[in-house]
Amino acid sequence: MTTIPVTTWSLEQTAPTDLLPAAAPEGDVRIVRSEVPSPEFSRFLYASVGGDIRWTDRLGWTYAQWLEHLDRPGVETWVAYDRGTPAGYVELESQDDGVVEIVYFGLLPGFRGRRIGGYLLSYGTARAWDLAERWPGVKPTTRVWLHTCSKDGEHAMANYRRRGFKLFDTKVEEEPEVAAPGPWPGAHPA
């Protein structure tokens, strides 16, 4: 099996004042929390956003695994809609001691490059900082973190930095080279 070197960067914010929000894009872009745990919708978002950048770790999850994950206190999915069409999402997960991870973030290929990503990241990060207000028993957020890697979109790291995230760790590991799973070949012209 062929392997490729993959660099993973971990970034964080340690105070709500670290967030440097992006302006809202022009047009009818709205961000709404998907409050009803829906494995079908979450899998659609995951496969559609990550299909061309090799997100594969959840593709084998069963319906029950998706539901168990989504139905936990402190797990939230925020979806950006452009004129009523899902454009991207951010998934938040409350962890121990007031830490919230931005587990997944991205846009469907047809919505990239339209200034929606910075706005969605800003909004999602703000929701990470106030997550405990929506979840009784979850500790107030003291740190928001995420990771990105060299397989992600070319503008990912710059977007995180512009939103005020600071690098705290870098790792390079060999990973199996896998074909991009889709959503299907040729889904979006390059």
Topology overview:
Elements: E1 3-13, E2 29-33, H1 39-50, H2 63-70, E3 75-82, E4 85-94, E5 99-107, H3 116-129, E6 143-149, H4 156-162, E7 166-176
Parallel strand pairs: 5-6
Antiparallel strand pairs: 1-6, 1-7, 2-3, 3-4, 4-5
Query: How confident is the prediction overall: mean pLDDT?
Result: 93
In N-to-C order, the SSE pattern is: EEHHEEEHEHE
Global morphology = globular
Biggest beta-sheet profile: 7 strands, mixed
First CA to last CA: what distance? 27 Å
Number of strands: 7
Q: If you compute it from the alpha carbons, what radius of gyration comes out, rounded to the nearest whole angstrom? A: 16 Å
**Roughly how much helix do the residues carry, as a percent range?**
10-25%
Biggest sheet strand order reads 2-3-4-5-6-1-7
The residue ranges in which pLDDT falls below 50 over 5 or more consecutive positions are none
Content of β-strand: 25-35%
Q: Report the total helices.
A: 4
- The helix/strand class is alpha+beta
What do these coordinates show?
Helices cover about 20% and strands about 30% of the residues. It has helices at about 40-50, 65-70, 115-130, 155-160; strands at about 5-15, 30-35, 75-80, 85-95, 100-105, 145-150, 165-175. It contains four helices and seven strands, in the order ββααβββαβαβ. The protein has a seven-stranded mixed beta sheet, with helices on both faces. It has about 190 residues and is of the alpha+beta class. GO terms for molecular function: acyltransferase activity. Its EC number is 2.3.1.-. InterPro entries: Acyl_CoA_acyltransferase, GNAT_dom. Keywords: Acyltransferase, Transferase.
